[in-house]
């Protein structure tokens, strides 16, 4: 499914009735899912985030601009943030099955419509820019709203769409396509924005202007793909280094935080925490948590929620406001609910025992495999802090990290197995000539989920064997239980593949799935036989 994110920034953050109405104008479009509305009192600006399929998102963005033009008058606007329009910027960001070029096309579609139907001047930026000097939002916004009357009269500032005429009540809108941008502020223990500016100039890519040999030259800052400025936020009682991290592959959140901390300390200040404005990708918060766990000498092979907790605490993301990962991490917001995996053990066992076909053997096999992976991670994590295991610490971490990944993959498969069964039931209710194809595809889909479990169990068994080899002797039985769970899970999952495909042996695709299931069982058994025999013998078993 194609998904695109849109993150309009509007020039209103003080009147809830206004920014909520503007956000709802986008949310009212069928197919648009409103994710976040993040207002700022001092900046007088609200970041609105919504997602959906491309056509719905473009329509949502258009309706948002219509409502903002109706409710926001730029002649009355003041705020700490740079701006030149009631809707200051509208970026499209690829989320799922979308290319950057497709987002560029969306920017042009919206820009053309805003220019023609609303009569507003439109500039295009970042990947949608029509000329190099307009790629940077900061360059387009130079002089801000107050400079527009003069700028619009100059040929080089002719808008990409719409009239080259000043619209006093609105200003101009900048529309573009970009990578995921994180708006991120680092808090300082001072109240003077000039001190925050000094740190901002130290770290931002643009750096600062200095005099060298009697000439003014630009001295670059520490971090690439970072734009930053200092400001003071009275509602927080502190100055902040306000940053836009425009390419997380170049400068991730934790590196920006550490750089600000380093420069603040060098200037006699302290970083006290930080603030995320809007949303953040899951990988960015995991990268930060992993960074700080490793720096503390702890294993990064821990549950994902522990990694997120390490990131939140290390970055001080709760100093000025609450930080709830389920509301601020975009992947968590978009993730489907997993009712079975989120049950208590008692409730899951009770539900399995009732007179319904799901959850059944496929879900139980997935749970068994997840527990096997969890035990492999546990064995290596127990040994990780011990000085006697310093020589194999890297190997311990590798097993733990991969064990956690496979654990989560199989926990997700608990619900996916049930969903695939429900799709098969629905396909059997299809009537007409489409039924045969629908049933075939749903049957293959129902087999692919347990096959993924069976194949994962091969690696889980290998992780348990490695954990037994390099972990503590006292944890030997845990590794043995883990591989026994992996063997049971592989066999159980393969049984589900076979029962789903029992009438499709002549189908080439089904035959390949059956072959892979058999191979997964064979390979898992081979590892389990070795490890169980070794553990049983070392424990004195007959």
Question: Which segments are poorly predicted (pLDDT under 50) over 5 or more consecutive residues?
Answer: none
CATH secondary-structure class of the largest domain: Mainly Alpha
Total helices: the number is: 17
Average pLDDT rating: 95
CATH homologous group name of the largest domain: Formiminotetrahydrofolate cyclodeaminase monomer, up-and-down helical bundle
Order of helices and strands, N to C?
Answer: EEHEEHEHEHHEEHEEEEHEHHHHHHHHHH
Given helix and strand content, the structural type is alpha+beta
End-to-end distance = 55 Å
Task: Give the oligomeric state.
Answer: single chain
| Strand percentage | 15-25%
Q: Helix coverage percent of residues?
A: 40-55%
What is the CATH fold-level name of the largest domain?
Four Helix Bundle (Hemerythrin (Met), subunit A)
In this structure, how is the largest beta sheet organized? 7 strands, mixed
Radius of gyration (Å): 28 Å
Question: Overview of this structure, please?
Answer:
- Strands 1, 2, 3, 4, 5, 6 and 7 form a 7-stranded mixed sheet that branches. The chain has a 4-stranded antiparallel sheet with strand order 11-12-8-13.
- Helix 13 runs antiparallel to helix 16 and helix 15 packs antiparallel against helix 16.
- It starts with a strand and ends with a helix.
- It has 17 helices and 13 strands.
- Strand 9 and strand 10 form a beta hairpin.
- The chain folds into 3 domains: 175 residues, Formiminotransferase, N-terminal subdomain (Formiminotransferase-cyclodeaminase, Chain B, domain 1), CATH 3.30.990.10; 153 residues, Formiminotransferase, C-terminal subdomain (Alpha-Beta Plaits), CATH 3.30.70; 194 residues, Up-down Bundle (Four Helix Bundle (Hemerythrin (Met), subunit A)).
- With 542 residues, the chain is of the alpha+beta class.
């Amino acid at each position: 499914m194609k998904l695109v994110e849109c993150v309009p920034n509007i020039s209103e953050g003080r009147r809830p009735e206004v920014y909520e109405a503007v956000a709802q104008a986008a949310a009212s479009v069928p197919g648009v899912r409103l994710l976040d509305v993040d207002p700022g009192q001092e900046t007088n600006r609200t970041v609105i985030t919504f997602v959906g399929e491309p056509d719905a998102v473009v329509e949502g963005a258009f309706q948002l601009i219509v409502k903002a033009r109706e409710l926001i008058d730029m002649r009355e606007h003041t705020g700490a943030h740079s701006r030149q329009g009631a809707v200051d910027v509208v970026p499209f960001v690829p989320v799922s099955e979308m290319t950057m070029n497709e987002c560029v096309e969306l920017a042009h579609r919206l820009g053309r419509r805003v220019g023609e139907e609303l009569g507003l001047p439109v500039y295009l930026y970042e990947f949608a820019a029509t000329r190099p000097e307009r790629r940077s939002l900061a360059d387009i916004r130079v002089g801000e709203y107050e400079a527009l009357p003069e700028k619009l009269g100059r040929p080089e500032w002719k808008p990409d769409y719409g009239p080259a005429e000043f619209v006093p009540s609105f200003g101009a809108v900048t529309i573009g396509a970009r990578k995921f941008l994180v708006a991120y502020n680092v808090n300082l223990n001072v109240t003077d924005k000039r001190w925050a500016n000094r740190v901002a100039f130290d770290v931002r890519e643009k750096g600062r202007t200095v005099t060298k040999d009697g000439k003014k030259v630009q001295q670059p800052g520490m971090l690439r793909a970072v734009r930053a400025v200092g400001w003071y936020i009275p509602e927080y009682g502190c100055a902040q280094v306000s940053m836009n991290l425009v390419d997380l592959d170049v400068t991730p959140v934790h590196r920006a935080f550490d750089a600000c901390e380093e420069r603040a300390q060098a200037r006699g200040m302290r970083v006290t925490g930080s603030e995320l404005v809007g949303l953040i990708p899951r990988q960015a918060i995991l990268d930060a948590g992993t960074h700080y766990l490793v720096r503390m000498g702890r294993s990064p092979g821990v549950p994902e929620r522990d990694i997120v907790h390490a990131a939140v605490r290390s970055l001080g993301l709760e100093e000025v406001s609450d930080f709830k990962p389920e509301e601020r991490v975009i992947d968590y917001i978009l993730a489907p609910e997993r009712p079975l995996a989120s049950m208590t053990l008692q409730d899951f066992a009770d539900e399995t025992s009732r007179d319904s076909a799901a959850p059944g053997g496929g879900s139980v096999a997935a749970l068994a495999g997840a527990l096997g992976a969890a035990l492999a991670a546990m064995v290596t994590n127990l040994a990780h802090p011990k000085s006697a295991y310093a020589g194999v610490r890297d190997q311990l971490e590798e097993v733990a990290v991969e064990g956690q990944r496979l654990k989560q993959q199989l926990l997700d498969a608990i619900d996916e197995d049930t969903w695939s069964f429900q799709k098969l039931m629905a396909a059997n209710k299809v009537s007409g000539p489409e039924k045969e194809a629908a049933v075939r595809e749903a049957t293959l889909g129902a087999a692919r989920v347990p096959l993924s479990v069976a194949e994962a169990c091969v690696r889980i068994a290998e992780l348990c064997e490695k954990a037994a080899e390099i972990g503590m002797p006292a944890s030997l039985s845990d590794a043995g239980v883990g591989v026994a769970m992996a063997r049971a899970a592989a066999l159980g999952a393969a049984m589900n593949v076979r029962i789903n495909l029992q009438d499709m042996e002549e189908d080439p695709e089904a035959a390949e799935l059956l072959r892979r299931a058999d191979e997964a069982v064979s390979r898992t058994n081979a590892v389990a036989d070795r490890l169980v025999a070794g553990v049983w013998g070392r424990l004195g078993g007959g």
